[in-house]
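#help-structures
NK: newbie question, is this the right format to request a structure? protein is ATP-binding cassette domain-containing protein
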Amino acid sequence: MIELAELTKRYGAKTAVDRLTFAVRPGVVTGFLGPNGAGKSTTMRMILGLDHPTSGRVTIDGRPYDRLTRPLTYIGGLLEAKSVHPGRTAYHHLLCLAQSNGVDPRRIDEVLDLVGLTGVARKRPKGFSLGMGQRLGIASALLGDPRILMFDEPVNGLDPEGIHWIRNLMKQLAAGGRTVFVSSHLMSEMALTAEHLVVIGQGRLLADTSMARFIEENSRTFVRVRTPEPERLRDALAAAGVRPEQRPDGCLEIEGVPASRVGELAAEHRVVLHELSRQQASLEEAFMRLTHGAVEYQAREG
């Protein structure tokens, strides 16, 4: 488990992270979202001990990162996939990490096979594509077989097959009881991967909740109905105390009533329906609505 308590980081007069308190628990994929400049990367760097907090604390299974013996066996992190010595092969990069963390060298071949880099194990990563570099970074994170995994933009540079692979890998790791913390700007991908969300803006915590609740609380949910008999349906709904809103395209929109209830009322009054659907915003729409006032760099629409 990763736990943050009043975690704060200031750079001169600028507060990059402002009293963040939340926990990343095992068993689910937790998404970490925020606009550019929100403080996500700074937070992740403090988790790994790369930046020191101005105040507050962050612990990995109850201990700060710098007090972990063999830290790669506790937490594996992917922050900068290209942080590799240019003179070492992929294999020897992993070997250095294994030797410094007391990891059995036989584990190297396992993770290279897992990420699909066995064929280039003896090549230098400076010639790798962005996607291959990402795979090597993921192999480094998995090397110590840790209980906690943290990924920053893990699908960056991956092709569709690679994206599908890392998505399923994160889900499998969480299903096996591991803690998985992932940051990404790809909302569509996050919606398919994460079950829980931590959202920050301007360094402050905005949300710490399930994916379903986040979308529900930050979007408009309604039932859309299309019928050749709109007057009869409106009368049936009105008799039940339901007031639909007529849209320009002729459809009715109904809030606060389940789709099943609308269907039952239509059936009771023998009203023909051509469409009955529950409408809800996407993760991207909900995210934009929540973080609109916390965007540091905002382009003007033309």
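mod (FA): yep, format's fine, and the tokens are attached above. The mean pLDDT is 90.
NK: thank you!
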